[in-house]
Fold this protein.
Amino acid sequence: MSNPYQPSSFDPKHFQDQPAFGPAAAAGASNWVKQVRIFAVLNAVQGILEVLAGLMAAGAGVFFPFLAQMKEFKEAQGAEEVPPEQMFLVIGIIYIAIGVVLLASGILRIVAGFQNYRYKGRVLGIVSIVVGIAPVFTCYCAPTAIALLVFGLLIFLDHAVIAAFQMAREGRSVSQILAAFDPQQTTFPTNPS
């Protein structure tokens, strides 16, 4: 019995038994494979921004204890219970901790970005975006970190992208990987070995 609401051009046999690689796979392959390199650049840029923010936060953390030594803060203490030296020391430690987290996340993102640009280090890319969500408490990197987390998970969990990273592990070049997932490509590269 046929479905009267189904378009006449629909052929259910078209979606059965498609090969993992080859012309049929390339025609139906996800476009996410090309997006890996764009994501890698964005992830590295986010890492550079996090490194800069981490350096600024760590620098502020080192500077805060010196503020407590200023004459104005000692005179303004008055009847307060906490001396300014202790208060600024605690603030300095907090800023240094924030800076270290931002630096670690940023360096991890930069390394993952360089690896992912060559279709290597898929797990490192996933780890970098998950760890990269830690500095959202700074509010400086929160919107882009969340956007990169969503975009990165969409990319790295796609089956065609997983196959592309597998091809890179097998020794194929980036141009061979991109050609294998190009629907306009009529011939497909062979394995170099």
Notes: Residues 37 and 117 are 5 Å apart (CA to CA).
